[in-house]
Amino acid sequence: MRDFRGPAAAGLTVRTAWSLLALLVACVTSGTAQEMPNPTNAERLQPPVPAAVSPPAPQTRVSETASEEDLTAEASGAQDEEEELGPWGERRSLGAAVGEVTFINILVWSYNEYIRGADFTQVNPRSWWNNLEGGFTYDDNNFNTNMFAHPFHGSLYYNAGRSNGFNYWESLGFSLFGSLMWECCGETHPPAWNDWIATGVGGAAVGEMLYRVSGTVLDNTATGSERTWREIGAFALSPVRGFNRLVSGRSGRVMENPEEPEDHIPGVLSNRLSAGVRIIGEGESLSDSSETHGLFQVDFKFGDEFAQQRRKPFDVFDMSVQLNFGDKQTLGRLSVRGNLFTWDLKKGGDTQHVFAIEQEFQYINNNAFEFGGQMFDASLHSRFGLSKDWSIRTQIDAIFALLSAVNSEWAFLANDIPNRERFREYDFGPGVGGRIGANLSHKGRQVLSAFYWYQWIDTQNGSNLNGSDAYHNVQLIGARGMVPIGSNFGIGADAYLFLRDSHFELFEDQSQRVPQLRIYGVWDTALVGGGRR
Amino acid sequence: MPGDVGLKHASPLLVCLVVSLLAASHLEAQDKFGFTGVLGWETVSGGASQVLDQGITGEFDIYYHFGHLRAGIGVNVVSYDAITDKLPPVAAELAQSVSRVTLNLLVGYKFITDGALRPYVEGRVGYVRLRPEWNYWTTPGEPGENVEDRERGVQYGLRGGLEIPFAHKWSADISALWTGFSISEVEGNSAGLENFDSGSTIGVLAGVSFYP
Question: Which domains does chain B possess?
Fold first, then answer.
């Protein structure tokens, strides 16, 4: 029978540690107890003396029709004026963020325990210790769970930080912390590397994207039903942010929008909706084993690295989501790329160059292939203005994949999978790659584009049975064209080719070729600042 | 408690605590939302004590305060050492520990809300599940489903404790907890045990509370 006394068996070392801890707690208690504030209720409710108060930040102003409740809240807020408020009026609160991350984990655990009836939810201090002692491994969840659901889960942790006043880097810490808490204590399965990276790192990309997109929906100056629908829309995009706005009262309070446009609606923004058909084949041509499915796609571009003044993480990002009707999964693709650091190499004039470090999240899942991962790119963006209305943009990327996944014939042999529940059909591994792309735009609307992407994945778990060598060479090639109809509509078509050449030390090499053709109608629903010109 | 804190090591703690408590005479009430996380130890009595020995417990609660009253929900998880003397060797190997998971509704009363020591009592009632902790290979096509049925039932309890604020938004929480539970009958004949469908526990918990 396992003895849970664990490190207590270390004897003297533990006794010393407890003594030191006791002294530390005592001194902290002694020190901070002296400093605890003692405001009376009257003091809490008095408005501040004007001479002692610096001019309030815009988000703390209240409208002329403010109620007594608003004035009370304003006085209470002014008392904590030394607290830094975020651009949307959110108070920076470490404890609230940590509490929400914990509550999210309890909510997900409760769903697994009471609704799914899962076999991995009987957690307790013994299982927590076992997980800490056992260390990280890999798991066998399906591709959708590991490469989409976990990053979405991570986005909830991330936005617990973001909507409590923390920036991108600090909130990345929350997504990593929340995932670590789950891996340790939310399930009895041993912690998995792929879960921590997908949830922690992928959660930051998906979370920041959802945070920024929800910010474009919000309007603090709106009232009535328009305000209600905007708050509901933002809640649907970022539930944790919506919850925090609701409980803090900001969802109903009329106040100014963020001062800087990048925190709300940037100077350049575009949104394109596409609907049509997608034909996907296997082998040399589209007619080989082809399938036809309906498709719906959203391409959202936030900011412009050539026009942007502010350069915070994700002040410029692209998001693309594709729904494949009738395919294996309705969510066929989700792609997020956001600038973390940006430097101007050449500004002004018809030719401009920008160098950026970007975070990239990729998820592609259909009947023919699976590909995805958490990546970081070093990118050279160039813009060549041809005339007032026409421009060419190019992008050259060096890609480092922290952890990628691709379908593989021998992935089911993956060992080191504790508590195996299924056989996985994809390999995990880091890798490097490169990508070049170019697009031709007319009045901010993309009319022609092409790209080539090569990715090498070194299998760490999957086809590399017993540590044997296995790697994949993945190539994606695409070209797209769009004929504008009017200023907002158009007809588009694109062709893609997925190529995979897989090498296995113990087995015969495998290749895969998947051509794809898409034809669709286009509606550019938003072109702020004329789109990316 | 893990380790062994003798009087020699505890005396600095006691001295500092007394000094700090005497100095902190007027303290702000910690109210509205609060979170509590505790770890503890408990022992079992009643019918279930045939099978369950001592257990290690963890609990996380969320409260909302209405003056002296507080209401909330919490999750309590325990891992019991199983008494396997009378079980066949294979079963004994598999059934080394038993898990109890309880989702509780909590109602409490804090006698002092703004002092240096804040005693409270709390009643709880919850939905309990008891099951062995080993993992089986599950049926293909049904991943995640538990092979073993859980014994389910109702748990009720009483907790008495002390909150000791040590910072503006933080308190230490020390408490004693008694619970009783009533579950679907566990047949023990094959193991030479009497059937049982209830038990009670008594234990201690310690941790922190946070009021954002």
Answer: 27-210 (2.40.160.20)
